Amino acid sequence: MGMRGGIMVRGSRLAAFAAAMVLAGRMAGAQVVEVEALVRHGVELRQRGDDLGALAEFQRALGRSGEPRVLAQLALAEQALGRWLDADRHLRAALLSSHDPWIVRNRASLHQAEEQLEAHLGRLRVSGAVEGAEVYANDERVATLPMAEPARVAAGTNVVEVRAPGYVAMTRRVQVEPGQESRETFAFVREAPVPTSPPALQLGSMATPRAPELARGGDAQRALAWVTLATGAAGIGVGVFALARRGGLVTRYDEHRDPECPGTDSATQPTVCAGFLDDIGAMQALAIGGFVGGGALSLLSTVLFATLPPAEEPARGLASVRCGGGPGLAGVSCGGVF
Q1: CA 224 and chain centroid, separation
Q2: Architecture of domain 121-186
Q3: pLDDT value for 315
Q4: Residue 327, burial from CB neighbour count under 10 angstroms (0-12, 13-18, 19+)
Q5: How far apart are the C-alpha atoms of 250 and 119, rounded to whole Å?
Q6: How many of the other CB atoms lie within 10 Å of CB of 224?
Q7: 94-123 pLDDT, tens digit each
Q8: Could you tell me if 166 and 191 are in contact, meaning their C-beta atoms sit under 8 angstroms apart?
Q9: Which backbone phi and psi does 190 adopt, to 5 degrees?
Q10: What is the pLDDT of residue 201?
């Protein structure tokens, strides 16, 4: 290929690159125009009082552009609809772009909206001994233990639940005051052991030479009886532990009764007292489950032991007959063992 051909190849590549850049620029320009139209329409809907329709427009715009002004407009629409947590999250994200021209121009009104949100939000800090436990507030996961900082939650009564594999899930109602931090501590209790299934007998094994021995000795039934006895004892042990734990919690509640806790007959309870009552209820349910389950398995074990087939007598020797000379010259005497 000569010089002229090389120049033509390079020229065609440059032309293709320039065309691609022009096309990309047009697509980006079209997207900017679309986002601008969505934001403008959303603002118009808010001015007409249609905050829900404006929210849909801002969400569409956010799907095409993560501009700070889109986040801010979305947060203002969510605030108007009473979606305090969503509004707080999006407004904080928008204010992080402190040098954005739109944010700079509207900083005063955005900070005013932020102050209004504080009247509807509070903070929740949960502590516990199980690392990795998940904290839920009103069925929404808000943190994992240990918490580096408190979680933002709605002010008022929050249903707080803590979950961890291998432990009993605990739930309590927590009152969070606007702009304040509420602290809760959870004492984790391990779940009761799951009963193990007894070894299953295969139908085909009844035809094998060892099946009569297994059936005669009642080995499978005896093994099942021991398994149910051990599991029942474990269940009763869990019930005893939970009952003792409940007694300790009742004592702690009574210690706080005069200065803080009004008693179980009161419809309203301070936060610390409500926590005691929730834990007492959980331990009572665990104790009932342990005693009922353990008792049922122990009863089943007793029935299995009582109905075991009797052991078979040892096998005797083979029958035999022996004959020999009897009394006298012509006598014959025979004897047998059966």
Answers
A1: 33
A2: Sandwich (2.60)
A3: 46
A4: exposed
A5: 36
A6: 18
A7: 999 989 999 999 999 999 999 999 999 999
A8: yes
A9: -70, 150
A10: 53
Answer CATH for 11-118 from 3.30.1360.120, 3.40.50.1000, 1.25.40.10, 3.30.420.10: 1.25.40.10
User: Which of 26, 86, 24, 76 is closest to 54 using CA atoms?
Assistant: 76
Give the amino acid at 205: S
Strands (E) in the chain, as ranges, are 121-128, 134-137, 140-144, 151-154, 156-163, 170-176, 181-186, 320-325, 332-337
Q: Which residues of 263-276 are buried (b: 16+ CB within 10 A; e: fewer)?
A: eeeeeebebebbbb
85: number of CA atoms within 13 Å, CB side? 12
Q: Which of 167, 138, 182, 150 is nearest to 270 (CA)?
A: 182
Q: What 8-state DSSP symbol labels residue 167?
A: B
CA distance 30 to 27: 5
Structure token digits, residue 169 = 């899930």
Residues 6 or more apart whose CB falls under 8 angstroms from that of 321 comprise 334, 335, 336
Enumerate residues 6+ apart whose C-beta is below 8 A from 165. Answer: none
> CB count, 10 Å around CB of 35?
19
Mean pLDDT of 74-102: 94
Tens digits of residue pLDDT in 313-331: 544 444 454 555 555 544 5
CA distance 133 to 53: 39
Q: Which two tokens stand for residue 249?
A: 């919690």
Alpha carbons 89 and 152: distance in angstroms, whole number: 9
Please report the sign of the dihedral spanned by the C-alpha atoms of residue 109, residue 115, residue 116, residue 118: positive
Contact present, 152 and 123 (Cβ < 8 Å): yes
Top pLDDT among 275 and 293 is at 293
Beta-strand relationship, 134-137 and 140-144: antiparallel
Tokens representing 93? 């994200």
Q: What is the CA radius of gyration of the chain?
A: 39
d(Cα 183, Cα 174) in Å, to the nearest integer?
9
